[in-house]
């Protein structure tokens, strides 16, 4: 299952509070990337934070892995996890009478 995961800054968090943990955050993400859990990661452009595409069996499984990020473990971030599926709109291209 492919999931879009968006970090959620929790009350009291700030970039200054994140700073001491960022190298460990990156290490943890690298381990998940090498294991095939993290498929893609991007910095958000609307605010500080990340958008991660993960591949897991379930939302609960993704939540377990994401909960191991250092910033999540110390209560500075949480995660919004959005399950994704194939885009079925392509079928409209092949509907009878359409070009």
Summed up:
With 99 residues, the chain is α+β, with helices and mostly antiparallel strands.
Could you walk me through the main structural features you see in this protein, from its secondary elements to its overall organization?
- With 99 residues, the protein is of the alpha+beta class.
- It has helices spanning 15-18, 22-34, 59-66, 70-73; strands spanning 2-9, 38-43, 50-55, 77-84.
- Strand 2 and strand 3 form a beta hairpin.
- It starts with a strand and ends in a 15-residue tail after the last strand.
Task: Describe the protein's topology.
Blueprint lengths: L1 E8 L5 H4 L3 H13 L3 E6 L6 E6 L3 H8 L3 H4 L3 E8 L15
What is the rounded Rg? 17 Å
Q: Can you tell me the residue ranges where pLDDT is under 50 for at least 5 consecutive residues?
A: none
State the distance separating the first and last CA atoms. 32 Å
Given the structure, what is the number of helices?
Answer: 4
Q: What's the CATH C level?
A: Alpha Beta
Mean pLDDT: 95
Main sheet: which strands, in order across? 2-3-1-4
The count of strands amounts to 4
Overall shape: it is elongated
Residue share in helix: 25-40%
As a percent range, the share of strand residues is 25-35%
CATH architecture: 2-Layer Sandwich
Q: H/E order of the elements?
A: EHHEEHHE
Biggest pleated-sheet summary: 4 strands, antiparallel
The helix-and-strand class reads alpha+beta
Count of domains: 1
CATH topology: Alpha-Beta Plaits
CATH superfamily: Dimeric alpha+beta barrel
């Amino acid at each position: 299952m492919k999931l879009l995961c968006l970090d959620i800054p929790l009350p009291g968090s700030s970039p200054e509070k994140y700073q001491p943990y960022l190298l460990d955050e990156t290490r943890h993400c690298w381990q998940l990337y090498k294991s095939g859990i993290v498929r893609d990661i991007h910095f958000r452009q609307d605010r500080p934070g990340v958008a991660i595409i993960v591949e897991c069996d379930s939302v609960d499984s993704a939540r377990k892995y994401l909960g191991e990020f250092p910033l999540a473990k110390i209560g500075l971030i949480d995660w919004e996890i959005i399950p994704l599926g194939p885009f079925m709109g392509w079928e409209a291209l092949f509907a009878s009478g359409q070009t």
